[in-house]
Write a structure and sequence with these properties.
The structure is a single chain. This protein is mainly β. It has a five-stranded antiparallel sheet, with no helix packed on it. The protein has one domain: Thrombin, subunit H. The protein is built from one helix and seven strands; from the N terminus they run βββββββα. About 10% of the residues lie in helices and about 35% in strands. Strand 6 and strand 7 form a beta hairpin.
Length: about 100
Protein backbone atom coordinates (compact mmCIF):
# COMPACT_ATOMS: atom_id res chain seq x y z
CA UNK A 1 0.00 0.00 0.00
CA UNK A 2 1.28 3.43 -0.84
CA UNK A 3 0.25 6.94 0.05
CA UNK A 4 1.92 9.88 -1.70
CA UNK A 5 5.63 9.43 -1.01
CA UNK A 6 5.18 6.73 1.62
CA UNK A 7 5.04 2.98 0.80
CA UNK A 8 3.78 0.83 3.70
CA UNK A 9 3.42 -2.93 4.00
CA UNK A 10 -0.15 -3.97 4.79
CA UNK A 11 -2.28 -7.08 5.13
CA UNK A 12 -5.24 -7.07 2.74
CA UNK A 13 -8.58 -8.76 3.40
CA UNK A 14 -12.17 -8.74 2.22
CA UNK A 15 -11.58 -7.81 -1.41
CA UNK A 16 -14.77 -6.76 -3.17
CA UNK A 17 -15.64 -4.96 -6.39
CA UNK A 18 -15.68 -1.58 -4.67
CA UNK A 19 -13.03 -1.82 -1.99
CA UNK A 20 -11.16 -3.81 0.62
CA UNK A 21 -10.01 -3.88 4.20
CA UNK A 22 -6.35 -3.23 4.99
CA UNK A 23 -4.50 -3.82 8.24
CA UNK A 24 -1.76 -1.24 8.79
CA UNK A 25 0.64 -0.36 11.59
CA UNK A 26 -0.27 3.35 11.31
CA UNK A 27 -3.60 5.03 10.75
CA UNK A 28 -4.33 7.20 7.71
CA UNK A 29 -6.91 9.94 7.62
CA UNK A 30 -10.29 9.26 6.00
CA UNK A 31 -10.26 10.70 2.49
CA UNK A 32 -6.50 10.16 2.05
CA UNK A 33 -5.60 8.92 -1.46
CA UNK A 34 -3.90 5.50 -1.60
CA UNK A 35 -2.39 3.19 -4.19
CA UNK A 36 -2.60 -0.48 -3.24
CA UNK A 37 -0.41 -3.05 -4.99
CA UNK A 38 -1.72 -6.56 -4.39
CA UNK A 39 1.01 -9.18 -4.67
CA UNK A 40 -0.82 -12.20 -6.03
CA UNK A 41 0.55 -15.72 -6.25
CA UNK A 42 -0.81 -16.72 -9.66
CA UNK A 43 -1.00 -13.47 -11.60
CA UNK A 44 0.94 -10.21 -11.95
CA UNK A 45 0.59 -7.61 -9.18
CA UNK A 46 -2.68 -5.69 -9.28
CA UNK A 47 -2.38 -1.92 -8.69
CA UNK A 48 -5.52 -0.21 -7.39
CA UNK A 49 -6.17 3.48 -6.72
CA UNK A 50 -8.59 4.63 -4.06
CA UNK A 51 -9.23 6.57 -0.88
CA UNK A 52 -9.47 5.73 2.80
CA UNK A 53 -13.19 5.44 3.62
CA UNK A 54 -12.87 4.73 7.37
CA UNK A 55 -10.26 3.95 10.04
CA UNK A 56 -10.52 2.19 13.41
CA UNK A 57 -8.25 0.28 15.77
CA UNK A 58 -7.91 -3.30 14.56
CA UNK A 59 -9.60 -5.65 17.05
CA UNK A 60 -7.50 -8.67 16.00
CA UNK A 61 -3.91 -7.42 15.73
CA UNK A 62 -1.92 -4.39 16.86
CA UNK A 63 -2.46 -1.53 14.45
CA UNK A 64 -5.34 -0.18 12.41
CA UNK A 65 -8.09 -1.45 10.14
CA UNK A 66 -8.78 0.77 7.13
CA UNK A 67 -11.64 0.56 4.68
CA UNK A 68 -10.41 1.41 1.19
CA UNK A 69 -12.85 2.57 -1.49
CA UNK A 70 -11.54 1.98 -5.01
CA UNK A 71 -11.63 4.79 -7.56
CA UNK A 72 -13.56 2.46 -9.89
CA UNK A 73 -15.24 -0.89 -9.44
CA UNK A 74 -13.36 -4.08 -10.27
CA UNK A 75 -15.01 -6.57 -12.61
CA UNK A 76 -16.87 -9.19 -10.57
CA UNK A 77 -15.19 -11.97 -12.54
CA UNK A 78 -11.74 -10.70 -11.50
CA UNK A 79 -12.69 -10.58 -7.82
CA UNK A 80 -14.11 -14.12 -8.02
CA UNK A 81 -10.99 -15.44 -9.79
CA UNK A 82 -8.67 -13.89 -7.21
CA UNK A 83 -10.77 -15.30 -4.35
CA UNK A 84 -10.58 -18.80 -5.85
CA UNK A 85 -6.86 -18.65 -6.69
CA UNK A 86 -5.35 -17.09 -3.61
CA UNK A 87 -4.80 -18.52 -0.15
CA UNK A 88 -6.27 -16.85 2.98
CA UNK A 89 -7.14 -14.11 3.57
CA UNK A 90 -8.78 -14.40 0.11
CA UNK A 91 -9.77 -18.04 0.40
CA UNK A 92 -12.80 -19.52 2.03
CA UNK A 93 -12.62 -20.08 5.80
CA UNK A 94 -11.76 -23.62 6.85
CA UNK A 95 -14.73 -25.91 7.41
CA UNK A 96 -15.61 -26.54 11.03
CA UNK A 97 -15.37 -30.03 12.45
CA UNK A 98 -18.97 -31.23 12.50
CA UNK A 99 -18.19 -34.71 13.78
CA UNK A 100 -19.28 -33.93 17.34
CA UNK A 101 -22.44 -31.97 16.49
CA UNK A 102 -25.69 -33.54 17.56
CA UNK A 103 -24.00 -36.16 19.78
Amino acid sequence: METPGRPEPAEAQDLSRGGMLLQLAQALAPGAPVRVTLSLQRRPPLVLEGTVAWVRPDPDVPGWALGIRFAGELPGELVAEIALEEHPPWGRPPARDRGSEGA
